[in-house]
Automatic annotation (TrEMBL):
Signal peptide (residue range): none
GO cellular component, one term: histone deacetylase complex
SMART domains: JmjC
Protein name stated in the entry: JHD2C protein
Claim: Metal-binding is one of the keywords in the record: yes
InterPro entries attached to this UniProt entry: JmjC_dom, LSDs-like
Compartments, as annotated in UniProt: Nucleus
Principal place of residence: nucleus
Origin species: Pandion haliaetus
Domain JmjC: 1-136
Single GO BP term: regulation of transcription by RNA polymerase II
Keyword Protease tagged: no
């Protein structure tokens, strides 16, 4: 597990925490700005075509969660599309808070429990409404009603 983390682009604080034997790393997060969603979607469709996979117009490579963007692909995403990745290691007892609309992937290395809480602030109502509409348009989404209750 430690070898996997050492291969990542980590800041000095995370590297220091990894060396602390009292800290238990549990998950590796890669977080992307929500504004980069279209670039990431285009990139994943490009990769699928390169691999000879059929790209159906009704499938969203982000929402169907069929991809894990590894280090090599993250480097390509940066070079070809200018999309930066924020890499975070979640240690035992840590909470990770994501901004609304942030795309992310998580690789768990120990038993984990996920607790999710959504919060809509008046300052970000427009963005929350946009996200809700985007999810409703996804035909593959099983439960696409307004979970955030933006209408309220």
């Amino acid at each position: 597990v430690l070898k996997k983390f050492e291969e990542e682009d980590l800041d000095d604080l995370l590297r220091k925490r990894l060396k602390d034997s009292s800290e238990l790393p549990g998950a590796l997060w890669h977080i992307y700005a929500g504004k980069d969603a279209d670039k990431i979607r285009e990139f994943l469709q490009k990769i699928a075509k390169e691999q000879g996979l059929e790209v159906l117009p009704e499938h969203d490579p982000i929402r169907d969660q069929s991809w894990y963007v590894n280090k090599k692909l993250r480097q390509r995403l940066l070079e070809e599309y200018g999309v930066k990745t924020c890499t975070v290691i979640q240690f035992l007892g840590d909470a990770v808070i994501l901004p609304a609309g942030a795309l992310h992937q998580v690789q768990n290395f120990h038993s984990c429990v996920q607790v999710t809480e959504d919060f809509v602030s008046p300052e970000h109502l427009v963005q929350s409404f946009h996200l809700t509409q985007e999810l409703r348009l996804s035909k593959e989404e099983i439960n696409y009603d307004d979970k955030l209750q933006v209408g309220n």
